[in-house]
């Protein structure tokens, strides 16, 4: 099967100018087309988002904000950034949106710069429990420049215990409290976190990078009205380019804007802003809400089927797009499992699980999700098939017979390719 870029003229120019890179682009298009993307932080963008991201906005430098730039020739860029911010405000129901952060980590760093001082106490979910590096984990700058304290999940439920969070917050009195993370399969109680933040005089930051599309589509409660600041990436479930946004009320707008520029960044990536604007426009359509609901429904089917096949799921299942599997009882590590699955055309990522006894680079878990498969149009039947393939490959790996594993991997890879042929990748034809 041949996959060609939706932007034919650009592809033709690339092929003439740099055949090596053109070949790599074609190889990646083919790889994405013939494999199943189960990593919950990945998705597919539309042809329109691809076109906007690869547009002539790449050529323009725009340090500053609309109407307040340090370069001339901003007449069109100002309209573009204004449009993207307007769409973000309307979609999420906020008073202010900054669409300039390069990615989620700089967006979170901007929050620290805006509202905290070096040495202040900050509180977030511990990375091994499902949090993010920038929520104060020690190896991050946020855990070096600030005094971090971390909350986790209960060992018996795999869920956040807000009573424990409240006790920690009362004792430590953080300046910032982060909620959200990278491996959180359950609904985030934004109202509960907000009550704790108010009680201890902290600023609540909701990092919804993973669930922004679910929030926009009405498939997950919104943090707006609870959190003082909301940060998010623009890809993942939102199906935009790899950028980020910070959403706030009017009272925090100036502090956020000054932290992004000139505090942390120079000129924004205008081609990314163009792609963000398109993605936000797509997310405002009724069909996106249906997409978000199908993401959640598909993840639930996937989780139920895996549990029925004996897989241990952190927290027992999922409320959103993400399923976190603990492979300890299957007798294999997450890293070798992810590699075997990748060879079989099932793209996952190895991931730590709460209270993981293994090292972070060789953890016990697998993190999978439904956003990308749902974008391809797959439903419950396909989720059940994916669970069956996961079970076959992991079972063959656990058995320890290299020849038998190789045979299973090759057969599954062929079956995966057949399924993929029925569900083309969006944005690529």
Outline the secondary-structure elements:
Layout: H1 8-17, H2 19-34, E1 36-37, H3 47-53, E2 64-65, E3 68-69, H4 75-92, E4 96-98, H5 104-115, E5 121-125, H6 141-145, E6 147-151, H7 162-172, E7 176-179, H8 190-200, E8 203-207, H9 212-216, E9 229-233, E10 244-248, H10 253-264, H11 270-283, H12 286-308, E11 312-313, E12 322-326, H13 334-343, E13 346-347, E14 349-351, E15 365-369, H14 371-375, H15 380-399, H16 402-422
Parallel strand pairs: 1-13, 5-6, 5-7, 7-8, 8-9
Antiparallel strand pairs: 2-3, 4-10, 9-10, 11-12, 12-15, 14-15
Helix pairs in contact: 1-2, 3-11, 4-11, 5-10, 7-8, 12-15, 13-15, 15-16
- The count of DSSP E runs of length 2 or more, i.e. the number of strands, is 15
Kindly report the average pLDDT value.
96
Residue share in helices? 40-55%
Strand content is 5-15%
Strand order of the largest sheet: 4-10-9-8-7-5-6
Number of domains: 2
Shape: globular
- What is the CATH architecture assignment of the largest domain? 3-Layer(aba) Sandwich
**Structural class of the secondary structure composition?**
alpha/beta
Question: C-alpha Rg, in Å?
Answer: 22 Å
The total count of helices amounts to 16
Catalytic activity: (6R)-5,10-methylene-5,6,7,8-tetrahydrofolate + glycine + H2O = (6S)-5,6,7,8-tetrahydrofolate + L-serine
Modified residues (N6-(pyridoxal phosphate)lysine): 236
Pfam family, one: SHMT
GO molecular function: glycine hydroxymethyltransferase activity; methyltransferase activity; protein homodimerization activity; pyridoxal phosphate binding
């Amino acid at each position: 099967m041949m996959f060609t870029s939706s932007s034919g003229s650009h592809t033709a120019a690339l092929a003439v100018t740099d055949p090596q890179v053109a070949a790599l682009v074609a190889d990646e298009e083919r790889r994405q087309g013939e494999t199943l993307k189960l990593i919950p932080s990945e998705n597919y963008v539309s042809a329109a988002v691809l076109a906007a991201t690869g547009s002539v906005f790449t050529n323009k430098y725009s340090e500053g904000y609309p109407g307040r730039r340090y370069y001339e020739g901003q007449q069109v860029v100002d309209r573009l950034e204004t449009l993207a911010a307007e769409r973000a405000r309307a979609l999420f129901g906020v008073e202010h949106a900054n669409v300039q952060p390069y990615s989620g980590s700089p967006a979170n760093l901007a929050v620290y710069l805006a509202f905290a001082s070096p040495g202040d106490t900050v509180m977030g979910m511990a990375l091994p429990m499902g949090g993010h590096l920038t929520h104060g984990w020690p190896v991050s700058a946020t855990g070096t420049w600030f005094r971090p304290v971390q909350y986790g999940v209960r060992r018996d439920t795999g869920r956040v215990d807000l009573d424990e969070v409240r006790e920690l917050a009362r004792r430590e009195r953080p300046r910032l409290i982060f909620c959200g993370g990278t491996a959180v399969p359950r609904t985030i109680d934004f109202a509960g976190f907000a009550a704790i933040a108010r009680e201890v005089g902290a600023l609540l930051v909701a990092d919804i990078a993973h669930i922004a599309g679910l929030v926009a589509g009405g498939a997950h409660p919104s943090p707006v009205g609870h959190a003082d600041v909301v940060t998010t990436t623009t890809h993942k479930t939102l199906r935009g380019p790899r950028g980020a946004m910070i959403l706030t009320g009017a009272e925090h707008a100036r502090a956020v804007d000054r932290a992004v520029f000139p505090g942390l960044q120079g000129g924004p990536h205008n081609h990314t802003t163009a792609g963000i604007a398109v993605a936000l426009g797509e997310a405002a359509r009724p069909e996106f809400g249906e997409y978000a609901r199908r993401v959640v429904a598909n993840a639930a089917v996937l989780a139920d089927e895996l549990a029925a096949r004996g897989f241990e799921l952190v927290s027992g299942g999922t409320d959103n797009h993400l399923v976190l599997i603990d492979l300890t009882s299957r007798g294999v590590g997450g890293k070798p499992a992810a590699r075997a699955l990748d060879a079989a055309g099932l793209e996952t990522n190895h991931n730590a699980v709460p209270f993981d006894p293994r090292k972070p680079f060789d953890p016990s878990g697998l993190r999978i999700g439904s956003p990308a498969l749902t974008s391809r149009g797959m439903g419950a039947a396909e989720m059940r098939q994916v669970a069956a393939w996961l079970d076959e490959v992991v079972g063959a790996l656990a058995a320890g017979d290299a020849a038998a594993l190789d045979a299973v991997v090759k057969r599954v890879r062929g079956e995966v390719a057949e399924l993929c042929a029925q569900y083309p990748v969006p944005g690529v034809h």
